[in-house]
From TrEMBL:
Domain of life, source organism: Bacteria
UniProt name for this protein: Glycosyltransferase family 2 protein
Membrane-spanning segments: 229-252, 264-289
Organism field: Chryseobacterium suipulveris
InterPro entries linked: Glyco_trans_2-like, Glycosyltransferase_2, Nucleotide-diphossugar_trans
């Protein structure tokens, strides 16, 4: 029997871990030739998530858990689960049931057809705001343009299946800022996608606020491309040319019309504008320097406080 490892990061998900375990168990009750394990990764939860996981592990042998010493983030949590998974294939999914476990048999079917990575292409239900849908699609379009990865619209979900050979490659990657969605695309292998409609959160509230979304967006963009640095250089050159041409035209106009070169307000606006451009460029450079700073220290992506295997 082939073994499927299911990695589920959990941050304040005390109301969901039992539900998703039950639904996954029901799914595998219809899959005769497969056994499974669920690796929950408690990412520094402040509620009773860890207690619920310990209780589940005592009742069901297929339930494993990893408890972090603090909150390290969603991507390190998924990476930790992959590091300890030993199945023939590994499926990563969220604990809030927005990733439907009922899609697992179709993912396994595609894997058995010879695909090494089976990713999912998400469509949002009507309850999700238009702003959320549009900004998500716009982000992945932008990421495809200015980086070396090409994530399809809705293809940025962490709900995917990876063959054990792919997971072995992933384990050897020790990046300070992990962006697994991009890495799985960058690695290649044989890949295919499956469409699904995201479900509603079963209980609790999402901790993924706007600040975390922006940080995650910058991580994805800077993890796979130096094009923003080239963009900064191009902008600097372009605005310098505009400044020289504009000032030259202004001087010629002053000589022809015999007027003084004046304009305190326009001067201040120009200084502020170009100052802003310089700060943007310095910010882009600073992000890359910060990533180098974090990488060279070689700190671990996560610290484990406890585990049951």
């Amino acid at each position: 029997m082939k073994k499927i490892s299911i990695v589920i990061p959990a941050h304040n998900e005390e109301g969901n871990v039992s539900l998703i375990h039950q639904r996954i168990k029901e799914v595998f009750s219809g899959l005769e030739n497969y056994r499974f394990e669920i690796i929950f990764v408690n990412d520094g939860s402040r509620d009773n998530t860890q207690q619920k996981l310990v209780e589940l592990a005592e009742k069901f042998e297929e339930v494993k858990y990893i408890e972090f010493s603090r909150n390290f983030g969603h991507q390190p949590a998924v990476k930790a689960g992959m590091d300890f998974a030993n199945g023939n294939a590994v499926i990563s999914m969220d604990a809030d049931l927005q990733h439907p476990p009922e899609l697992i048999p179709e993912m396994i079917k595609k894997w058995e057809e010879g695909f090494d990575i089976v990713y999912t292409i998400r469509t949002y239900p009507k309850q999700i705001s238009a702003f959320k849908r549009k900004t998500s699609d716009l982000y992945y379009k932008l990421l495809s343009v200015i980086s070396d990865v090409n994530l399809k619209e809705g293809g940025g979900s962490d709900f995917r299946l990876m063959d054990s050979s792919v997971v072995d490659v992933m384990r050897n990657m020790n990046e300070a800022d992990i962006f697994l969605r991009g890495l799985s695309n960058w690695m290649g292998f044989r890949q295919t996608g499956i469409h699904f409609t995201a479900g509603e959160r079963a209980s609790g509230e999402s901790s993924y606020n706007l600040k975390k979304m922006m940080k995650f967006a910058f991580t994805g963009i800077t993890a796979f491309s130096v094009k923003p640095l080239y963009l900064a250089a191009y902008l600097g050159f372009l605005f310098s040319v505009f400044a020289v041409l504009g000032y030259g035209i202004y001087v010629i106009h002053s000589f022809v019309s015999k007027t003084e070169i004046s304009g305190w307000a326009s001067l201040i606006i120009t200084v502020v504008f170009f100052g802003g451009i310089q700060l943007i460029i310095l910010g882009i450079i600073g992000i890359y320097l910060g990533k180098i700073f974090k990488q060279v220290k070689e700190r671990p992506n996560y610290i484990i406080r406890s585990k049951n295997f």
